[in-house]
Amino acid sequence: MVGEELAIGGPFLDADGMKALGAALAITVTGLASAWAEKEIGTAAIGAMAENEGLFGKGLILTVIPETIVIFGLVVALLINSA
Amino acid sequence: MRLLERLWGKTPSRKSDKKKKGTSNYAYAVTRVRAMKSKLLPKETYPRLLNMGIDEITRFIQESEYKNDVDELAMKYSGGDLAEHALNRNLALTYDKLLRITSGELNYLITAYLKRYDIWNVKTLLRGKIYNASVEDILESLISAGEFTYTFLSELAAKATYQEVIDALKETDYYPLLQEFDGTNLAYIENELDKAYYSSLFAVIGRPRSKDRKLFARFIKLEVDVKNLSNLFRLKKAGVEKSEEIMPLMIEGGLELNPEKLASLPYEQFIDELRQTHYWDAISSVAGLETASLTIVESRLIRYYLESATTYSHVSPISIVPIMDYIIHKNNEVTNLRIIFRGKEAGLDDTLIKDQLVVI
Fold first, then answer.
1. Do A48 and B34 touch (CB under 8 A)?
2. A29 is in which domain, residue-wise?
3. Is residue A3 part of a domain?
4. Average pLDDT by stretches of 10, chain B with 360 residues
5. Are the beta carbons of A69 and A33 closer than 8 angstroms?
6. A4 touches chain B (CB under 8 A)
7. Number of domains making up chain A
8. A2 domain residue, yes or no
9. How far is CA B244 from CA B82, B249, B263, B303, in A?
10. What is the CATH number of the domain that holds A34?
11. Mind telling me how many Å the CA of A8 is from chain B's nearest CA?
12. How many helices (H) and strands (E) does chain A have?
């Protein structure tokens, strides 16, 4: 009955819906992953910087390296949407 | 703020008995400590220091990490005393800093480890009072890196007799042991205090479940072994071979050594037995010789202890080990500098001083 109604109204998610969900997942998961990685590296960089200010440049670069993860996520999300 | 409270506060103990809540935040603590370790004096410094006079060395350490300490104490003291006070103050402040930058279990374990300085201070006070040392002399040797604040310790040092010191320590864990002190059994009390320290440390670790506690336990056990081994060497050299004389001096809970078995052996067999342990590699180049000086054997053992801590800190980079590694290396640096100062002051030969140093 419920199934019949759904079948009449079309699938629960059509192709566009699936695409949107996929893109959202790609961004969410990579965003969380890079946030976690940056937190770990960031605290370590702060620790090193507290002792030696000269490490600011290196610390900054190392801290933003995990940002690539979420950029890949963004790229994948855009590719999914444009396909 | 805690630093100020610690310097000026009057309460003898900080609340650290309860396990602190929160996570340990290893990334922060470990990297910061590694950066601190990179500021320790490199080994090339020591030959240069040996060529200097006392004032030059004081000047040298005034330009290094000890600047603030030397500057602040320069009004009150001079020469070797200045250096001694500055080194002790720096050590105490460094360890205090470690406690400030760590949290959670890490902080809990380090607090337990640093109680050794309370024991050191209690021993120094008792010794000083028995031999009627002046308050200044006693203050020179106190290191307020444990739970007792410098203010509290100076109050204790100003007391007239050892009995008053013991009474003032009534609320500490050491009181029951100290009550047995009658003015003659200092060596016994000192041994018992050390043993009490290690057994309380093992009690804090409990049955190690977390990775951290396992590593920490291994670290402490290695230290116990090194201590037992140097004591065994001293005793064997002095010709003590009776198990019942040696065993009361041994600390329980070592890693690899079995003091009960080693205690009853004569010197040659003792050496043969040591060949089967890991410690042999560290001392093999000197220990086989009957004439080897104990100083060299002991400094080799300490070096082995320091080196293995560094190795393990690379094996477990995100753990308590790098921090313990720093603690013992810092302590070693202060000891080395103190040896140089005191050696120079006493006019010892440079090679003699050099043998005492543990340089890595």
1. yes
2. 11-82
3. no
4. 48 44 81 92 89 86 88 84 88 92 89 91 88 84 85 87 85 83 82 89 85 87 89 82 80 81 79 82 70 79 90 89 93 92 87 85
5. yes
6. no
7. 1
8. no
9. 44, 9, 9, 30
10. 1.20.20
11. 54
12. 4, 0
